[in-house]
Amino acid sequence: MKRRKFDLAATPGKAAVGVDDRFQVATPLRKLLNKVFPDHWSFLLGEIALFSFVVLLLTGVFLTLFYEPAMTEVVYDGSYAPLQGTPMSAAYASSLDLSFDVRGGLVMRQMHHWAALLFMAAIVVHMLRVFFTGAFRKPRETNWIIGSLLFWVGFLAGFTGYGLPDDGLSGTGLRIASAIMLSIPVIGSWVTSSIFGGEFPGVMIISRMFIAHVLLIPGLLVALISVHLGLVFKQKHTQWPGPGRTNGNVVGERMFPRYALKQGGFFMVVFGVIALMGGLFQINPIWLFGPYEAWVVSAASQPDWYVMFLDGSTRLMPAWEINIPLGDGYVIPPLFWPTVVLPGILVGLSTMYPFLEARHLKDRKSHNLLQRPRDVPARTAVGAMAVAFYLVLTLSGANDVIADKFQISLNAMTWAGRIGLLLVPPIAYYVTYRLCLGLQQHDREVLAHGVETGIIRRLPDGRFVEVHQPLSASNGHADGHGELEYVGWVVPKKMNRLGALGPAIRGFFYPIEKPVEAPVSPGHPPVEARPEREEIGSGESRR
Amino acid sequence: MTSDNDRRRGLLARLRERPAARSRGRRRLGAAVRLIAALMLAGGAYTVFAPGAQAQDNPQLTGAAAEGKALFDVSCVTCHGRNAQGVEGRGPSLIGVGAASVEFQVSSGRMPLARQEAQAHRKPPVFTDEQTRQLAQYIQELGGGPVVPGGDDLHEDGNVAAGGELFRINCSQCHAFGGGGGALSSGKFAPSLHPATDRQIYAAMLSGPQNMPVFGDNQLRPEQKADIIAYIQETLKHNQDQGGFNLGRYGPSTEGLAIFLIGIVALVFASLWIAGKS
Fold it and tell me: Looking at beta carbons, which residues of chain A come within 8 Å of B258?
């Protein structure tokens, strides 16, 4: 009997043929693998959020294996001596066991928490990129709305997770959340008692938050993220303007192999950074906060950074209580305005911004090319204003820590926050607007007069002038060169960008694309053949 | 009642009648004699009842207290006044604050005060331990007050777990969960507990310095105080931080700072690097 030959090299191909025979996936897969993505570092910010979400899912599953979502009282007998013999909830005891008695539990818990902070931070940074470059414009308004919702759902995910360990910090946060719910007029007390199953804290809030935190909210996040990515596929990614790039095409790299490989590598980097932070930096030492007791509130009890702006708005809010003399009297507590009304307005404004801007500019067109922030000064300035507003509130959320560590009066911090909240955003608007105009002006100046060469020429009458290298050929203009139109894209401002001083394209911050072969990435001017230039000399010899 | 009134009326009547019967010279002489007698009576009574000038300046001080008084009269008298009675608008009276208060304020360098401000800061102490004891003895002998028990190690019998619970209930509101301190209103603050010695913590609980409430032996029994000191000294100070660098134990605010300064910065650089590799 002849032995059958086994050709190892042909196996993958055969297997692929076998799969395609059965499922007919070759055509759609080819389309997918050949999909082109534009390449720019700022397009990777959203991926940080995506990848940290993956890390959140992985570490979160590990934590659920050991966490016990119950408020039954137990007496701690684990290996952390300073809490031995202390009565506490089963949830807190299992969180302590996770930290001290489960192998690798503490690093997993810390990675989970750092990944959560990173997830929210990356969402915000990604959102800023999308905002300042105008990537939210038609046809991508839906994705902007989904992105904003992802922030708020992530906010909920973070808050419910913050509440699970049932240490002093999470209980204090939960107490504040219940107070916020209670402050809602008319429905407040019903909302609170239905969520807590009666009076705070009740006996079921931990198990309810647990199911929200591990099933409902992650499910919602996965759904929103899938639609978010699906829409990016369907609507195609935006790109920076540049040679060969139009509103109707996408210039970049194919999904496979390079883009996929780079993304895989980037995932490893994100995972690595989270793992390093989880191993090197302590986060939320629950064992120091102790079990939650209603009478224990530590100083410096703050929420995680993405909730801190609400803490700040509460601290800045004057104690304006509204008494409505209806029936037995009705009170709207001051807490209602900074913690319910303000986030409500922020959600509305942030999700509706694309429509507001389009309406204001009467812009009905589809835009696939990005804009540089300086070219839309009003939007950039509005964004700066929003960032300033958020920053003042966030800093005010930590104003007791700042006051203590920098030895400033806490009262002064509160008033600085109140005044700053009103003054800093308009100042940020004005300064940003002027900066944008100034940057534009400089670009226009280079287009009109050329690049500064650094060569100073002394004229016969004794004056000194700097020699400028014009960017366009002469067309009989008074200066001896033509004027270039402003198109809202990078203008070369150094001689080596013109190829005058050897290759300037290599480098850490910019793609090492070869200009002739591949379209130019942002940050790069189109490099053409060296233009004919007059010789630059001392000026004396030719006269 | 009525008989008194009658007698007084009779006396007044006699006084009104008599002078007319005497000569002017005798009246003057009699007045002078009565005046001198009254003055001598008043002066004599004063000399008998008033404390002597010597006794006022030198209460019965022990040797250490006398040394303390000498130090006090050089370094503290400006604000706390003669005999530690306080100076309005400058320094409070120290009568009755006890040796515990002096020990806390002087051994932690808070007194003598560098300047008048919201609250005194810890600084290197000006006085030696010996001098501090003398000052404390002086104030103690002036008006009594709480005293820290002897010995440098006041937590050897302390139960760390019980102390932790007491610390979280009584101390963490101001000194924060890690004992790093926290802000109070108008520039006042709860200081960090990390440089504090056993005796200073004990003295602070007894005397309630500055904005701290007094935790007398009725509120926290001496063994509970030992528990708290044990928790501070053995858990908060000598704890190897599980899970890495503790970011100053300032709670979530420094964690938020870290995720941007370390996490986001590192990953933005990574994305620049990856996007650059085409």
Answer: 277, 281
